[in-house]
Every structure is written in structure tokens, then in C-alpha cells.
Task: inverse folding
């Protein structure tokens, strides 16, 4: 078994044995630990897991969406990626323009009510079609606010400047590799309340030594 797989399975074992049960915003609940760290040596291969289903195509298209600086689900839908649909759909069904069936708490209701789930899926399909076909509708209801792409590629400073963090960090790595400021931050406290979902991978830092590039990612709970 690959080293990366062992690191992941070690985390699961640690969480199950040492974790604390907590409630969350979804009402589902979690078992969690704080501050756990995993390390992966990419010279040994890409750490793609085999003990769980990993939809790599969706991961790749979402990451490209971030890198583009995009914050609208239209690009994702064009690539058959439905990861962010629910947050945009929520804005639509809670708007004054929506005249369809009641979609209150659709996430939880669709899990326990088969009849409602069929209704929800039908409304979601109509919503996705409008996002893809109607430019104005997509602009208004496909937008998720200043999520990852906005922060990575167009962070707004207190002076009103726009900062392309991703471009800057690449230039820094190339031209000043020994710098200790190779950081990209997604968690912008001033924008969190306007985001459909605050970033899970909230910051990452690069480190260059002996001609090798390392990256450390901080993932919020």
C-alpha cells in the first residue's frame, strides 16, 4: 500500500479512537480532532486514495475553476461538475423571483422524503439548465460571492487595490525562492459573510530548499 494511503488510514484510525463528537451546521454531526498533520512525499507518487472513491475529474475541474479566479457555477456545470450547486440553488429558491414549489431546508428534506426528493431534483435540473442557457440568470444566481477564486486571484486590499496572490507567489518562488512569505490565503474575514461557503483549505504556504518545492496546506475543521 502506498505511503499516502497509510497516512490517510492513520488519520481515520486516530479520529475514530481519539476524536470528539460534535454537532455542526447541517445537524448531521462530526467526529473530529484538532491540529492533525499528514505528510506526503510527491517524489514517491501522487497520493490518490484507493480505499475511498475519489472523483479526480471533479477535483481537477474545481481546482481549475479556483485558478481561473471564477466564482460562478456556470463553468463547473459546463464541465459536468455539480459540487457547488446547492449554494447557488439556495439563493435562487430564497429569492423573490422564485415562484416554484417550497424548497425550504431542501438539503435535509431530500434525504428523508422520497417524494420531495423527486420534486427537488426536478427543480435543480431546471435551475442548472437556466444557468447554462440564460446569461443574465447565470450572472445573478450562479454567483457564489467572493469564494476561493476571488481571494486567490483578486484579493481586495484596504486601499482598494486588487492583489493576484497566485501570480505573486509564483513570481516570488521563481525570483526569490528563499523568501518566507510564499503564502496564499483564502480566508478573508472581511468577506466571509458574503461567501456561499467559507474556504475549507484556508491558506497554503510554499517552501524552497535544495532545489525542491514543498507546500503546506492548512485545512480548517
Result:
Amino acid at each position: 500500500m502506498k505511503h499516502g494511503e497509510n497516512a490517510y488510514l492513520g488519520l481515520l484510525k486516530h479520529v475514530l479512537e481519539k476524536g470528539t463528537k460534535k454537532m455542526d451546521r447541517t445537524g448531521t454531526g462530526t467526529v473530529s480532532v484538532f491540529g492533525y498533520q499528514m505528510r506526503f512525499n510527491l517524489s514517491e507518487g501522487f497520493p490518490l486514495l484507493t480505499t475511498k472513491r475519489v472523483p479526480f475529474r471533479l477535483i481537477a475541474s474545481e481546482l481549475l475553476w479556483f485558478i481561473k479566479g471564477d466564482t460562478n457555477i456556470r463553468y463547473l456545470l459546463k464541465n459536468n461538475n455539480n459540487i457547488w450547486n446547492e449554494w447557488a440553488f439556495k439563493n435562487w429558491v430564497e429569492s423573490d423571483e422564485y415562484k416554484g414549489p417550497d424548497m425550504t431546508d431542501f438539503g435535509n428534506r431530500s434525504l428523508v422524503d422520497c417524494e420531495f426528493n423527486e420534486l427537488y431534483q426536478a427543480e435543480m435540473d431546471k435551475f442548472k439548465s437556466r444557468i447554462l442557457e440564460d446569461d443574465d440568470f447565470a450572472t445573478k444566481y450562479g454567483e457564489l460571492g467572493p469564494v476561493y477564486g476571488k481571494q486567490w486571484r483578486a484579493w481586495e486590499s484596504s486601499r482598494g487595490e486588487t492583489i493576484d496572490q497566485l501570480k505573486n507567489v509564483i513570481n516570488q518562488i521563481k525570483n526569490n525562492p528563499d523568501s518566507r512569505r510564499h503564502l496564499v490565503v483564502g480566508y478573508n474575514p472581511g468577506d466571509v459573510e458574503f461567501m456561499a461557503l467559507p474556504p475549507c483549505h484556508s491558506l497554503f504556504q510554499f517552501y524552497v530548499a535544495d532545489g525542491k518545492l514543498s507546500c503546506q496546506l492548512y485545512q480548517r475543521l
In short: The beta strands are 20-22, 30-32, 155-156, 162-163, 183-185, 201-209, 212-219. The chain has nine helices and seven strands. The first helix runs from residue 3 to 18.
